[in-house]
What we know:
Elements: E1 21-24, H1 30-41, E2 45-49, H2 54-68, E3 72-75, H3 82-96, E4 101-104, H4 119-147, E5 150-155, H5 168-188, E6 193-200, H6 206-219, H7 223-231, H8 243-254, E7 265-268
Parallel strand pairs: 1-2, 1-4, 2-3, 4-5, 5-6, 6-7
Helix pairs in contact: 1-8, 3-4, 4-5, 6-7
Amino acid sequence: MQKALISASAHEHGRALAGKAALVTGATSGIGLGIATALAAAGADVVLNGLGDAAEHRNLIEGLAAEHGIRTAFSGADMSKPDEIAGMIAAATDELGKVDILVNNAGIQHVEAVETFPPQKWDQIIAVNLSAAFHTIRGVVPGMKSRGWGRIINVASAHALVASPFKSAYVAAKHGIAGLTKTVALETAEHGITINAICPGYVLTPLVERQIPDTARARGLTPDEVVRDVLLKAQPTRKFVTTGEIGALAVFLSSDAAQSITGAALPVEGGWTAQ
């Protein structure tokens, strides 16, 4: 766990989430960064978790702090390792005083037929996409209960609701996230805590971009055919979902206006699962 790299005093009173502290996993690109940016714009202090270049992450959190007048911190915790997850939550609590909003977004993918799917890839995907959410939720719920307020947002997928071929581990993990969300919602319903799963369709993130060539190989298609005939074919709007749309929903779910929404799996996928 890396300690905070930059801090800034919160300002601009009246923003919906001013005074709240958020932890977003997998937050240095794609959906996670979109959510972290939206929470910051709403006034929340934010800890971003991710892997990669420390200098780039420093620039990222410094930029968020300066633009939105919030406190920011960075964690390099490996979401496949429970001890690092526990350390991240402890450090986030030390840096910001609490974790009011938890966003479980970290995820990895592998595309391959089940009979040749590498067991180590299965284990990695289940660890990062499902087990990590258990460990983070377990770590933050006691504090949320003590304060009588908390928001947990699990970034699931349309694949928490329906399946696609060649993604056995990912689909299994996302279905698991939906079940975990419902269970924790029932356990925390009387404590001022909500937990929901956002289920995006295809968003043109680095994760999706990386799986296009894998899907092309698995299905014998060109990359352009994968985008047209596999990815966007599933979404009646024929458009990629944007990270801004997901971020806006996360802000709403974190607000008091959403206090009666809990245990829900909310599709944001252009009508994919309506078919």
